[in-house]
Write a structure and sequence with these properties.
With 875 residues, the protein is of the alpha+beta class. Helix content is 29%, strand content 23%. The chain contains 20 helices and 50 strands. Strands 1-2-9-10-11-12-22-18-15-14 form a ten-stranded antiparallel sheet. Strands 7, 8, 13, 19, 20 and 21 form a six-stranded antiparallel sheet that branches. It binds 1-O-phosphono-alpha-D-glucopyranose.
């Protein structure tokens, strides 16, 4: 790895970090300010897409563009030291800060950047020390470019929008408040102030400023600005010519003579706000070196506190520390969405539908008390046609599509169910199924096949004929999502791919494409729903459902021949037509009949998939049909076309037979495991573009959705293997992710990136669904701490390798207001997975029952302790 951990709190150091094009996210606990920072001090600072304090910077800008750096110049007699340039640098990073130390011949330098956990500002502290024996005269100047507008203005009226700039110079800094927000769709008066304040360690304000790029550069440029290299005088007052210019926070601090070993510190506080009071408040909290140091210490403590809610101790410094960063990733994804970091130069903030459900997955582990409300709110994004709004904003509102394109991802209904199932297992809260919530309604109809022009409604909720908001149980939402898809098939009687599935890159087969991969998962969910309903039946014999839904519960009225794809399509068309305007009437249905209906559907679909999509000659499953109605996988002109997703879904759904799973795993190793790296590719090299299936195949092979080591699918592969009782194989995949992430070729900080490319390099840092799934798999499958209707079933799948040559593994996690501390002990090395020898809950021995070792929640509740210990001895 390129870094070294220096403690057990996740702190790591990297020598000469400029060799890698890397970034670290900085933010506070509620994402009130979003920053990215590189070893060059590059990376942008913003609130959201429309409020960038510094120029938006994507990955290449970090090393190529000087105008996206937080810079600091020190003028010595004939020398200029520029702090964004490397000079024997060592980077230290922790939760959540970056510290760079560097040395020049005469000065030692330390630059610290962090966002206080409770404030929406970024703080930069520059410390300088004279390392010579002589006195050293320094002239310091800070330089933060100010952008002050929306990301889109970068290539949309960049100059014109600078004409709106108005600055105000203050004793401690600069406020940029553009007159308007420039947007030809509708200009608005701007209300936001972009600010940078600065002082030196005696709390002395800067002597003056160079507030515009014109003034700072003079006749020079950003490489040789006159403000640094010539004798340009800083100003204290605004002059009219500063209006309408690109602005910058360039503060000239007073010249100082440093004695031998003497040091001095400079501070900058940066942010964006609508309220000047907020700026003053933040400044009052940070206006002395002491206060800043205190805030820094508190920030570190706060993050570590957050991360300690769920704790793993594998007795291995590197793995433990690496896991700390992986545990932070789901929160980062929640705060940043899939935007706002240098690789993620797309999107508009907000989280996508899949991300949302992955976040709840971790939340259920770390902060379970928050999960119920979130689940209920998220289900309000479902439409009556089974599709859903695709983006949720920070404040929980739904948006049809972030780019206003009418489209549908066919896998979307899979994820809410998987997360809900985990919730039910964790809490046994069946009542959530009966909670009534509305549906999402927008201009998009019939799964994006029709658009209502002139759609006016502002509240985006579905109304029934009499204009009343239609409310229905969460269970009904779930049923609609799955029943609609069951009937939504293409010519092979497989569920249609529509505009893509989990693999966003399979987006060019909307009319004829079919996704076998996620059909497996629909069949799985339908079956699993019957188990949930069986449990519900203990409470309720009948439930009420939307009258129109009886069309899709066909076995209760007029059955559809499931092998006839046209018959299914006709039935779905009827349902979509009828629900264009719903009656609002509900009918009573026996839970038993519902179970029977779903059972029949899942059985039919499972059998169909298992038989028709198994490529017996190749030993794996076909997962897709393309827009020319052709099978996508298998052998073609001597080349093997194989996609990992197809195999993972077949295994994970529990539908593939054990024999098929064994063969599929063999094929995965043969065709998808890399020859040089331990990881598994998302697909084999199809060797050509594939416009009949998707853009994915146009990427260079080994990148992104074209055969990268795509971590989300890899971790789901591990999960599927564990689920199918292949612990060694599951471990191999989990371990491959860790090995690849910590390999020096990955060139990344500790974390799971979205993917590794063909050269093993990690790309798209921090914001990936893999982290949630990794933690989930670790807890549920590897450590085998499984929740079942509120109880805990202990089913560890540990191997010698999991113990890193030690004899104990510990895990701690919250459980109903208490803390469960579980310790696993083993004695000798073993080739096979360990089995349970005995288990103690506190002093009490847990005996094995029909399902294995089950700890009843009632038993846990009866223990009157805040921290409950479970000891598992393995043999
Ligand atoms: C990303 C997207 C995810 C999508 C996947 C494959 O994965 O966020 O929604 O399914 O690419 O196209 P992630 O970044 O979560 O690993």
């Amino acid at each position: 790895m390129i870094y070294k951990f220096i403690d057990d709190k996740g702190t790591f150091v990297v020598e000469n970090p400029h060799r890698y094009n890397l970034y670290l996210p900085l933010t506070n606990q509620d994402g009130g300010l979003l920053s990215a920072i590189s070893p060059h001090l590059a990376g942008d600072i913003k609130l959201d897409n429309d409020h960038f304090l510094t120029p938006p910077a994507s990955i290449e800008d970090l090393r190529s563009n000087l105008l996206c750096r937080r810079d600091f110049f020190i003028r010595l007699d004939r020398e200029t030291i520029r702090l964004s340039y490397p000079s024997k640098d060592i980077l230290e990073a922790g939760f959540l800060y970056q510290k760079i130390t560097k040395e020049t011949k005469r000065i030692s330098i330390e630059i610290l950047n962090f966002v206080p956990y409770n404030l929406a500002v970024e703080v930069m502290r520059v410390s300088l020390r004279n390392r010579t024996k002589k006195r050293l005269k320094i002239i310091p100047t800070s330089f933060i470019p100010l952008y002050g507008r929306s990301e889109k203005n970068l290539r949309d009226h960049r100059h014109v929008s600078s004409l709106l700039n108005r600055i105000q110079l203050d004793k401690y800094g600069i406020y940029l408040k553009p007159t308007m927000v420039f947007d030809e769709k509708g200009h608005k008066i701007n209300e936001s102030t972009y600010f940078v304040l600065g002082f030196e360690d005696t709390a002395r304000p800067p002597e003056g400023q160079f507030p515009t790029l014109d003034y700072f550069y003079g006749q020079g440029d950003l490489v040789n600005p006159d403000a640094i290299e010539k004798d340009t005088k800083p100003v204290n007052k605004k002059i009219p010519e500063f209006d309408g210019k690109e602005a910058c926070a360039a503060f000239r601090f007073g010249a100082r003579t440093l004695k031998k070993n003497e040091s001095i510190e400079y501070f900058l506080i940066m942010g964006v706000t609508k309220s000047r009071d907020e700026i003053e408040k933040a400044f009052r909290k940070l206006n002395s070196p002491k206060k800043i140091e205190k805030s820094f210490q508190e920030t570190k403590k706060n993050w570590l506190n957050y991360l300690s809610q769920v704790n793993f101790n594998f007795q291995d410094k590197n793995f433990n520390n690496w896991l700390l960063w992986v545990k932070l990733q789901p929160l980062l994804r929640k705060l940043f969405g899939c935007s706002f970091l240098p690789h993620f130069d797309y999107g508009k903030g907000g989280r996508g539908w899949r991300d949302l459900w992955q976040d709840v997955l971790t939340l259920l582990i770390t902060e379970p008390h928050k999960a119920r409300a979130l689940i209920l709110n998220n289900f309000k994004g479902v439409r009556i046609d089974g599709s859903n709004a695709t983006v949720i904003t920070k404040d929980g509102a739904f948006i049809s599509d972030r780019n206003r394109i009418s489209r549908v991802w066919m896998d979307h209904a899979i994820w809410p169910y998987l997360t809900l199932r985990f919730y039910l297992n964790k809490t046994a809260d069946l009542n959530i199924l009966l909670e009534e919530i509305p549906y999402f309604r927008d201009q998009q109809f019939k799964r994006a096949q029709e658009i209502e022009l002139g759609f006016q409604q502002k509240d985006f909720v579905l109304r029934q004929k009499n204009n009343k908001i239609y409310q229905a149980s969460l269970l009904e939402h779930l049923l609609i999502q799955h029943l609609v898809e069951f009937f939504n098939v293409g010519k092979h009687n497989i569920i249609r791919l529509e505009n893509a599935d989990w693999n966003d890159g399979l987006d060019m087969a909307a009319s004829e494409g079919e996704s076998v991969a996620f059909s497996f998962m629909y069949a799985h969910n339908l079956k699993d729903l019957t188990l949930v309903l069986a449990k519900l039946k203990e409470k309720r014999k009948n439930i009420t459902l939307l009258k129109e839904l009886s069309l899709l519960l066909d076995t209760l009225g007029s059955p559809v021949a499931y092998s006839d794809y046209r018959a299914k399509q006709r039935r779905l068309a009827q349902y979509l037509e009828r629900t264009n305007k719903i009656s609002g009437q509900k009918i009573n249905i026996k839970v038993d009949s519902l179970i029977a209906d779903l059972e029949k559907k899942s059985q039919h679909l499972s059998e169909w998939l298992k038989e028709k999509e198994w490529l017996a000659q190749d030993g794996f499953f076909n997962g897709y049909y393309d827009n020319q109605v052709r099978r996508a996988e298998g052998r073609l002109k001597g080349k093997v076309r194989m996609i990992l997703t197809s195999q993972v879904c077949a295994m994970m759904s529990q539908i593939a037979t054990d024999e098929q799973v064994r063969k599929t795993w063999g094929s995965i190793k043969r065709y998808l495991q890399d020859k040089n790296f331990p990881g598994f590719h998302l697909n084999t090299d199809f060797g050509s573009l594939y416009p009949a299936l998707g853009r994915g195949f146009s990427f260079s092979y080994g990148d992104k959705e074209n055969g990268a080591f795509f971590n989300h699918m890899s971790v789901m592969l591990a999960y599927a293997l564990y689920k199918r009782d292949l612990s060694k194989e599951g471990f191999m995949v989990m371990d491959s992710i860790y090995k690849m992430a910590t390999n020096s070729q990955a060139q990344i900080y500790p974390m799971i990136p979205e993917y590794f490319n063909a050269q093993g390099k990690g790309l798209y840092h921090y914001l990936t669904g893999s982290a949630s799934w990794y933690i989930y798999t670790l807890l549920q499958e590897v450590l085998g701490l499984r929740f079942i209707w509120g109880d805990i079933l202990l089913k560890p799948r540990l191997l010698s390798e999991n113990f890193f040559h030690h004899h104990k593994i510990e895990a701690r996690f919250p459980w109903q207001g208490k803390c469960l501390k579980v310790a696993f002990f083993r004695s000798a090395d073993k080739k096979k997975p360990y089995e349970i020898k005995e288990i103690f809950l506190e002093q009490r021995k847990i005996l094995s029952c029909a399902y294995g070792h089950l700890i009843k929640s009632s038993l846990l509740k009866s223990i009157n302790k805040k921290e409950i210990t479970i000891k598992i001895y393995l043999k």
